[in-house]
Amino acid sequence: MLAPYLRLVRAGFDRHASYRAANLAGLFTNTMFGLLRVGVLLAVVGRAGSVAGYDAAGTATYVWLGQGLLAVVLLWDDGELAQRVRSGDIALDLARPWDLQAALLATDLGRAGHAVLLRLVPPVLFGALVFPFRWPHVPATWPTFAASVLLAVVLCGQIRFLLGLTAFWLLDNRGVRALWATTSGVLCGLVVPLGYFPDGVRAVLGALPFPALIQTPIDVFSERGSPTGLLGHQLVWAVVLLAAGHLVLAKATRRLVVQGG
Amino acid sequence: MAEPDPERGGPVGYRQVYRPLLVSRVRGQLAYPLSFALDVLAQAIGQAVELVVILVLFSRVTELGGFTADEVLLIYALAGISFGLADLAVGQLDELPRWIRTGELDVLLARPLPVLAQLITADLQLRRLGRVIVGLAVLAAVLTRAPVAWSPLAAVLLVVTPLVGTVIIGAIWVATCAVSFWVVEGRELASAFTYGSALSTAYPITVFAPWLRRLLTFVVPAAFVAYFPVLALLDRPDPLGLPAALRYAAPLVAMAATGVAALVWRSAVRHYQGAGS
């Protein structure tokens, strides 16, 4: 029952391991952006010594983990699912003897596993070598961080899944994708720590699922806030979004008319 | 004077070829007004999000790299206009790897027009005007507050800067996208410089590490898009002690960058042997 999905995890890993040039190019670009972002944020922290609880080491840790995590959770995809909806290939995917949502999730977990090795570890090591860096003080943080990253991958996968499914109704979902591409960086706490925002805004943003993609794993790693609360927020949203994905896919499938089929 | 006649071997000009192409692209994008409006809105939001980030940073500090909020916003606004215009003109070079992979580029090479001109006119991305509009709005708002040292020269500089900045970012775009002729993943590599320039031009370079400042001044001339011209507008010396002449050097830098971009592009096209498709 579960075996085919485990093989999909493996396939997702292998597929992304074969994109060596793409991974190296992405690593280069993530690192360049990291250097620019860490410059701006360290300039903010510089005078005050500490802003919103972030000192220089906390800031560098925040930036370099974020630059790695955005590739692990795959914040921005290439719109393959929407493309398959538009071209009609999605009919083939739905006809296969699997649960499409679970199959995509399994493949994505494999992809993310590979990304941890090639897209998360190198920028974090680079950041730790070149900048002041804050490693976890408590050993128990490491397994909690791993669980938090896993939940973030599931969550982001479901958000991308839902964004892709909008193509069933919109056909051309470029507008939706563009909106996500431009706002997600701030909503997820990738560009500016959520702690920088005024209290009211922070409370609203914190209740949404988006910080769970980037800010929460970083908070777990940096030992900010209670791990139970952080993981709990992720877990609740993971359940909600998995259920939402299931419902929307069912609705979309009912809408599907295979042309000439 | 008679118009050049292509049939008699005269040069093929703007009016015969490029204008009809551009008009058709513009019409095509306006054919779906709602979709176009959403695209423009998404771009405007993208630019506005960067504004929010700057405002959030300044809710925590009163100066960044030695510049006040209004001064940074002046840099941000001019950089945003330049980036939007450059992206509008040459942003579709991002798709170069796809053109190469599918063999569509070979078709362009066979036509008696420069490849770059064909690529630029292939898809003028009008939706980028969303960025330009937000940039202009912020510029208008901040000009009433920032301590600009007004003079006839400052007024000229204010008009010229976004246009010169467009040329500089456009040159960076062309030169780095040309990498796609050699490297399969050129698009991702180039985006460190193309989309990276949206970030690196919008802040005073004083916030960056010294080696990164030198890179942004002398190699990838992002600092000339807005930072140096704004120093002149504010009539303040460079906090880094660089020569005062650099504040007015942007047009020369734009010419040099265009020259380098043209050289890189030409040698890239000459090197190109097709994808075998």
Structure, explained:
The complex is a heterodimer of chains A (261) and B (277). By secondary structure, chain A is an all-alpha fold. Chain A has one domain (3-254). Chain A has twelve helices and no strands. Chain A has helices at 3-17, 20-48, 56-72, 80-87, 90-95, 100-130, 141-165, 167-170, 174-187, 199-207, 215-222, 227-255. Chain A is globular. The mean pLDDT of chain A is 92. Chain B is mainly alpha-helical. Chain B is built from 13 helices and no strands. In chain B, helix 8 (152-177) packs parallel to helix 13. The longest helix of chain B is centred in the N-terminal third of the chain and has 26 residues, at 33-58. The radius of gyration of chain B is 20 Å and the shape is globular. The interface between A and B is large, with 36 and 36 residues.
Radius of gyration of chain B, Cα only, in angstroms?
20 Å
| Assembly form of the protein | heterodimer
Can you give the helix content of chain B as a percent range? 55-70%
Strand content of chain B: under 5%
Largest β-sheet summary of chain A:
none
Mean pLDDT of chain B: 88
Number of helices of chain B: 13
Q: What distance lies between the first and last C-alpha atoms of chain A, to the nearest angstrom?
A: 30 Å
- Silhouette of chain A: globular
* Average pLDDT for all residues of chain A: 92
Overall number of structural domains of chain A: 1
Low-confidence stretches of chain B: 1-10
N-to-C SSE string of chain A, H for helix and E for strand: HHHHHHHHHHHH
Task: List low-confidence stretches of chain A.
Answer: none
